[in-house]
Protein 1
Amino acid sequence: MTEVVRAPDRHRGPTLKDVARLAGVSVATASKALNGRSEVHPETRQRVIDVAERISFTPNTLARSLLVGQTGTVGLLTNDLEGRFSLPILMGAEDAFGTGKMSVLLCDARGDAIREQYHLRALLGRRVDGLIVVGSSTDPRPSLGQELPIPVVYAYAPSADPRDASLVPDNVAGGRQIVDHLVATGRSRIAHVSGDSAYAAARERAQGVTEALAGAGLPLIGGQTFYGSWTEAWGRSATHALLDQHPDIDALVCGSDQVARGALEVLRERGVKVPQQIAVTGFDNWEVLSADSRPPLTTVDMGLEALGRLAAERLFAAMDGRPTAGEERLPCRVVVRGSTDAGL
Amino acid sequence: MTEVVRAPDRHRGPTLKDVARLAGVSVATASKALNGRSEVHPETRQRVIDVAERISFTPNTLARSLLVGQTGTVGLLTNDLEGRFSLPILMGAEDAFGTGKMSVLLCDARGDAIREQYHLRALLGRRVDGLIVVGSSTDPRPSLGQELPIPVVYAYAPSADPRDASLVPDNVAGGRQIVDHLVATGRSRIAHVSGDSAYAAARERAQGVTEALAGAGLPLIGGQTFYGSWTEAWGRSATHALLDQHPDIDALVCGSDQVARGALEVLRERGVKVPQQIAVTGFDNWEVLSADSRPPLTTVDMGLEALGRLAAERLFAAMDGRPTAGEERLPCRVVVRGSTDAGL
DNA sequence: AAACGCTCCGAAAACGGTTTCGGCGAAGTT
DNA sequence: AACTTCGCCGAAACCGTTTTCGGAGCGTTT
């Protein structure tokens, strides 16, 4: 009559029952001994611990989760694993979680809503305690809905629904900060070459640039932001055109480090000294591009790891019954290098 | 007498019991209905399905896992989440898994053995069905040991223990391939500037370069591989030195795309035409560096996503009772761009 | 009318832990 | 000597699901 159900092949490791049997106690006592509860004689406890160690007993987290209703796992739903934005966020989150005893279940939806829905169900089925959704651009994305049984935090790409909690870098402030830096170091004839205007990030940064210039009473040389694509090639051609029409600029704000690299190359080619004649700035602080160029690029760091950590903290708070809502904008940081400061 | 144990606060979602009650059947029947088993009347089945849909029932995977002894989860233990090598591998693995119903539990040990051990225990406790360990360089790393209850596959960084299954890119062949390409396109005076010689990758690639040159009966100009660091700065200074001493080279094989970018910049500065006078090659096919340079870089792609996919497949095979062992070297692929072919 | 086969359903065991609560000695109290 | 107190331990419920196996109901055959 016993053993009606039996997984046929699978080798299972030692269980608490085995520990209990070998230590000559009940499973209840074994459990209490291993979990440091008080109602166990020290000697008995040691015996249990020794046995557990000896047979290398590893408690089955699943069983515990099933009972207590929490898994100690969070889902990380990303939309571009290859992108350079998800990664630091993921690291920051892993960091914040790792110190405790949370694990991260990673899913990549690749921008496909169907796949996203599929992964969502999988995560829900695995009873994750919370969810971080990270997008590939700062453009708002559809909400996962308000009906989910677990808290959700959106990182980098905010949710379109203001009832959700979203964390995004403050691109507008970033644009302002970089212009403030240039103005503070004596530049006054500033132009702005950015990337693809379809990206909210490009428009937001341009807005910041415009605001800061207006605040300083300075003109935007060229009269507009020159949008193009997030490539070195665009940076090169835009810089050529700009220099032809406005040879008197003394600073060039670029929408990304890639664009700035293109600009740097053309300026060098045309014999323009950076930063003496023209200062150049990037955006993103993508180190492989910005740290080792000639001269190294002054750029804006969006602090994505901090954003990831904060996302984890917001999630913790929500799981703890203290949810937040709305879009939270995190400050950027200007990283000053040689392209704006001859001393570096 | 009922409800002795009760999780106090946690809101639990609808369970199979709820579905069964609302559909007027037993849990056994409800389970069978939802899982498409045959011994259920079509009408009953539909009723159950409708109820499940209506109350948005999500089966608790944990309970199932506990019973059948498999979780449908694999652990991904990485050592540099920020590095550019882990990511494609992770994507490839996620890809291979995602099609089925596997989930990925991600841990970043950051090169710290303690943290690695800690994460390993967490993964074991969560009863992952298998483990992929991905390192940050192709240097061998210590084995996790043979005593683990689940199969392990090492990716990118091989295990030092030959009994383990390891998957690495074939750097030696990559070095050979790039030289073969140069020789085939008419180059004969070839020099090699690489990165940090402490990396196995640098030494292996150099070995391939040397072998291929010897095979073609050609000398390595300069008489040696010039090791330095994986930076543009090193690429620049090495190229200057090389041109001063050997102005007659017609090809420069670089150990990475970063080094190649530095070389490209110096060649342009010194008025040397690439590829007409000197061909330049990189390694890694890091697109942000190689695809948009002037000219675009011919480079070697290590096929890391394929490596990740294969790691997943090897893991599946092992979980299925067909383990592999030893170090498997995966082929690289030369990506031809303008820096070696004037037509591009 | 009895025997049989078939379809559909439900009781119950099982997975591996945690927690509650009652029991049992031994020591202390009166 | 009887009663209380206290420390330590174990039986059993419980989490949510799957699977087995017996049984009920019903139609068909001899």
Protein 2
Amino acid sequence: MDYNFKEIEQKWQNYWEQNKTFKTPEDLTNPRKCYVLDMFPYPSGAGLHVGHPEGYTATDIYSRYKRMKGFNVLHPMGWDAFGLPAEQYAIQTGTHPSITTKNNCDTFRRQIKELGLSYDWDKEINTTDPLYFKWTQWIFIRLFNTWFDEKLQKGRPVNELTIPEEIKELGDREIRKYIDSKRLAYYDNAQVWWCPSCRIVCANEEVLNDGSHEKCGNIVEKKNLKQWMLRIPLYAERLLKGIDDLDWPEGIKDMQRNWIGRSTGAEVDFRIDGTDDNLTVFTTRPDTLFGATYMVIAPEHRIVNKITTVECRKQVDEYIRMAALKSDLDRTDLAKEKTGVFTGRYAINPVNNKLVPIWVADYVLTGYGTGAIMAVPAHDTRDFEFAQKFNLPILCIQDPDVQDQDQRNRILAGAECWTEDGKYINSSDKVTGIDINGLSKEAGIKKMTDWLESKNLGKAKINYKLRDWLFSRQRYWGEPFPVIHWEDGEITVLSDDELPLELPPLEHYLPGETGESPLANAGEWLNVTDKNGRKGRRETNTMPQWAGSCWYYLRFIDAHNNESIFDREKEKYWMPVDLYIGGAEHAVLHLLYSRFWHKVLYDLGIVSTDEPYKKLFNQGMILAFAYENGAGAKIPADQIEERDGKFYNTENGSEVRQIVAKMSKSLKNVVNPDDVVNRYGADSLRLYEMFIGPLDVMKPWDDRNVKGVFNFLSRSFRFFSNPENISIAADDNELLKGLHKTIKKVGDDIESLKFNTAISEMMIFLNLVYKKGKVSKDTACRFTLILSPFAPHLAEELWQMLGNEKSLAYEPWPEYDEQYLKEDTIEYPVSFNGKMRFLIELPADMPAEEIRKAVLADERSAKWIGSSAPANVIVVPKKIVNVVVK
RNA sequence: GCCCGGAUGGCGGAAUUGGUAGACGCGCUGGUCUCAAACACCAGUGGCAGCGAUGCUGUGCCGGUUCGAUCCCGGCUCCGGGUACCA
């Protein structure tokens, strides 16, 4: 019988839908649970591309396998549906984004359903649904009403915040300001990146290295705007520590660690000569204070104006003006060459009371540390470059740990920079009493930090690169903030029973040029009055797209609960997510933001786990062939013809080069899964996505190779659907060995997400089946079961043809029998001096000494041994024999 | 620059983590079936030499450890991802 995949796939998709086969179990007593989650997609107008089904198939195989292993499985899907494209479309056409969004979701849902993925569609969620974002707003209110207790390293409700007496004395307004200064969510004037083209602010993370906006590619500029910010750095330590225990790829863990960017050092106070002011710097090398020959402060530093002397005023003002301008231009090229000016002022080095000049330079960033540094040019490459350029003194204070005497002399003379370890020199002062000469780096840092603390000149300090998270956007199509700005300056959040705050209908969706959200035009919606007649205005910014995806995994647990965010017992049962699969492009931001929210919810007692995602796995990107001509211009893939392994442009017949590249519209090399489903069926698509290579690496898509897995499925179907091939006799030992080996390998490989080798093992078994010609019904059934997570439609059909009535989705996974995996004999490879020469079959339990004798006695050995006795014979039982001949 | 990851036949990729390199699939070659083709089935397929048995060679490059290295160590080259004056 022919493999009619169209009919089979339609039949079983209908069956699963009608029977709600994959409905999540309600029973929470099964101790074996498994929450398998995909990163939910943004439903774009372009529909699915073959990158989506890669991760979805992997989680689907895993979920189906776990069900068969007796687990309660939660495997949901939903839509991260707020976002710019639907809004841009609304601006152009006037179509409400909710309509565009609904259409796109419908397309995605249809395409996903055609892949036979075992989602529980009753749990579908959509971030744009008011019944969903009601709870996003609810969480925002929690963030607003939470402060971080540094002592307990824990978020706590603001009503548990102790107001210092001196603040209380200043009255309500100051108390309010104090509380606001502690909230995890705060509203503030912030210098932000602004994209004039999108008319939207961007988080630092959304601005690329070349100063362009990642969404549109246009150059962003700096602006001062009132924005909502989240104090994620308060959780830096928790977020960093938590990484250690996660079962995530090490590379992703490293990326998160680097992003958090913890560095230990000290803050040191320098008195400013001739003023009462101090200049505090952060340094990771307090031990090099004796080498600090000048100071640098960022152009934006508050103190610049105050300390600049009359003589230097003009040049400093000019420099600051230039620096501000420069940050608006392409920063990368200009950033290489160091610039700066002298303020005319000196600071006093606390270790030896020497005067050091204070400079302004933009290589010191305002946002990190204190925005000021002590420069140690002899031991810091950036300071060294700067000092050389401006002829500032370079004092070596660490005798370098190098062999090369010339290099050592250069370093000692201040002609070369040394950043490694060495013994301190020139590092003592009789008056101040500090002396670290002769110590090495680690001891020097310790001694200097202790000394600074004891003299009250500084303190040990930990700094993080992680910045406050800019959390508002000037957009219509996002979650409205449940916030009112009152005329007296107070900011309040709505009460829970006023949620959801829905988006008002609008006629025009275009944001204002000055940074006003389109919501500013929503007159009726905008203005509110409280019961005392106080006037207020709703927040017109909306939340960024991250908001909805920060917590969606929690809503899946109890998707339609309108009384609470989710049922506590259900949350306790299902959390944490056991397996989370998605693209590495979310390695830092989504996962970090999401972990942050989760930790706050944990601190507030809303969720039961400290971390949301126990095991994370990143699928590799799927690439596709693209073509370029001699000049490097890209030629669309549909305009290429292959002849004799060479590729030609059909337009003009010229030869082009085949390259492998990301799928993109401009290269016209996007593969649409619908085409593959039509030609070969969903099971073939699923199988090919998995067979193409390991899940976590990049791999090129090649349509021609789909044939390989299609052949395998057709062969499977043709063989097992034919009653003549099913024998009533028992299988022979060879077949049973093959079967049990396959059962073991496939199970092990699914557990470790190595689907490509699982599939090849099944192919090997099918080849054996063809060789045998007939198999028992029992073997046919077991093979069908292990194939089912990979090719579920085909497997259900075969299962039915083999006489089973119910769906196989909850059939127990076949057990393998060790007895068939044991080998009685082993084909020992025999090597001479490491080169394999022949195989010898020996009993598996033969002792090493016997093996040695048997090998040496074999006539084939004589040729390689020669006349003298072998120098050595290595016997590794069950592995190999190696004879060493001189 | 720094931090990760990678390099294996014509191609996608295997290799129990130190023990027969190239599983499985694509492609290609030959055969069976067919009037013919497609499909299907069977066989072969890293390179070089040889009719052949077989031999030599071979996992980006150079060196090392080892009875034995795709795997471990040292030094490079190239490719990919992240990040960037973070003091």
